[in-house]
Structures are given as C-alpha cells and as structure tokens.
Fold this sequence. Notes:
By secondary structure, the protein is α/β, with parallel strands linked by helices. It is built from 13 helices and 10 strands. A 4-stranded mixed beta sheet has the order 2-1-8-10, with helices on one face. Strands 3-4-5-6 form a 4-stranded parallel beta sheet, with helices on one face. A two-stranded antiparallel ribbon has the order 7-9. The longest helix has 18 residues, at 36-53. It is globular, with a radius of gyration of 20 Å.
Amino acid sequence: MVNTTSVILTTLCVPCACRCRYCLLSWDGRTIGADWARSRAVAGRFADWIGENRPELRFHFSFGYSMEHPALPETLDFLRSLGSVGAEYLHCDGLRIRDEAETEVFVRMLRAHGVKHLNFTVYGTEACHDRFAARAGDFSWLLRLRDAAREAGLETSVGVTLTRENAPQLEALLDTLGTEGTRLFVPHAEGRGAQLEPIRLRREDYERLSERGRALMNRRIWRTEAEWIADPPPEPTQRSILLSLTPENISRFENGDFAAILAEVEALDEAYYAPIPPFAELMRLYGDPAGECFFSARDLAARYQKRWLTEHGLRPYDVTDERQSGSRRL
Ligand code: SF4
C-alpha cells in the first residue's frame, strides 16, 4: 500500500540559460508550463483547498526550469506564504550570469526575502563543466555566486555529478571547490540523463578516488548494483504527487476540480505500477549480483521497471516523466 504524503504543484514557465547534457526536464529552449500569473492564482486556491480538505498532505508550489523568475523577490514571498520549500532553498543552476556587483545585489535580495540556502550543481573542472552545461563562464559564475552567498551568511551546498568521465578530475575539482558543503552524486537516468548510461560510475572508478573524495559520497544512497542485491532497499510506501500546470490543463485547475485531479493522478500512478512486480522480484529477474555500476535505489528500480514494461509490451502513461503530472514513489 502506497500513501500520498505530499503534492507538488509546478509550472515550467521560466527559461533556463543552460542546456545540461543530463537535464531531467529535457530542457530544449521551449517552455511547456502554464502562464505564471494564472499558475500563481491556482496555487493559492489549491493551498487553501489542501488546508481545508487534505490537511495531512504537505503542499509545495514550485516553478522551473530555472529560478530566473522575472519577479523573483515577490515570488519568494509568495512561496513562503504557502510554506513551499523553494522559498528557503534555491537551486541556482541555469540563472543569468551576473557580474560581481550584480551578484552582491542579487544575494542581498535573496537574503532579504528569506532564502537560507543556495544549492549548485557542478559537472567537473571548469572546461568540462562549461561544456556539460553548454555555457561558457558557467563554472566561474557558480563559484562567484557561491562565494558571495557565503559572504552574506547564506548556507551553500554543491552537488558534484560523478561519472566515469569526470571521476579522474575530482581531485583538481576539490582543490577549487573545497570539501565543505560538497557532496558527490551519481546522475540519474531520467530525461536526458539516459544519455549518460555509457559513462555511469563503476566500482573501479570509485576505488580510484582519494579518501577525501570517497568521504563525500553518501554510500547509504549510492551503491553498486551488487551491493543493492546483497542488501535490498525496502519497497516504497509513500508517494509525492506532481501536478504540472500547462496551457492545456490549467483551466481545469481554475475550475477548482482539485479532488478529482488528485484522484486521477493517483490512479495513473496505480495504473503504472500495479502490473509491475515488486522491486525484490525484479532484482531476482534482472539483477546482476556482480553488477559494478552505481545507482540510487530509485534509479535502479526505475531501470528494472522500464525493462519489465518493455518486455511485456506495456506502454502506460509515464508517471515518472517529471515534465508532466505524475508521481514520485519514496
Ligand atoms: S540547469 Fe537544470 S533545467 Fe537547466 S538545463 Fe541544466 S539540468 Fe536542465
């Protein structure tokens, strides 16, 4: 039995200045989300409805692709009024590049509007990162923003994607980034992330890392396939429902059909997962007990689940595609 514990309402209406090689949202230069003003109005009503009718659910309103919202200060205030996590924790990838003076103003504005933590993603040393993010100057801009944020007393964190390709650069990268607030992660295979499969991190790459490098990877989250098979994760018992506002569906939300919309997306989640055997069985079917590639439990489960669906000729609505309404099982 999987219970819904949270609802994320989102609109992908804000462009991103990068074009990362592994983009979960497959950003291609064209926004697909509903108009901001209409989405904002829906979010306010949805939050009220949740408070009155489903108070057990956590509710968050968010936007993407990047946080470069044309009215960011007011938007942060609005997110805070709804209790959304994005009001305090800002993903800073894909923002417009600012010079030093503009960066200081930007950071002061964020702080004044209640932001507490800035998070960045780095893909390798400077040239490699800029190539991966498809923007010259992105690496130095992220460092400038991070340093300005620290100066202003904000918390910061950097996630470093780790692949076969960039693992040999890690020492040089850590010399630049430092280790405080730096964490390593293995990129997922969602969206354009599927293109990174040939360079997925393997045990031998991990073992070649220095001690300080290995210490930055949470080994409870990132394990080899063999390690997951030897010590399987529990089956998910909770899910988050993602409602993606688009020009096509927003009028339904404006009509206040919230209970029906939520029930429909929950039904899509059930329809997707119901025919698929539990993870433990998929592991017996497909797992390689000597598998040396690193995965999160979720990424490995998704890999087996998609394979099972393909082998059984099933093509359900893909609730795992985060560009559209769907679910995230936890
Ligand atoms: S910054 Fe984020 S949204 Fe933009 S291309 Fe990169 S991964 Fe995609």
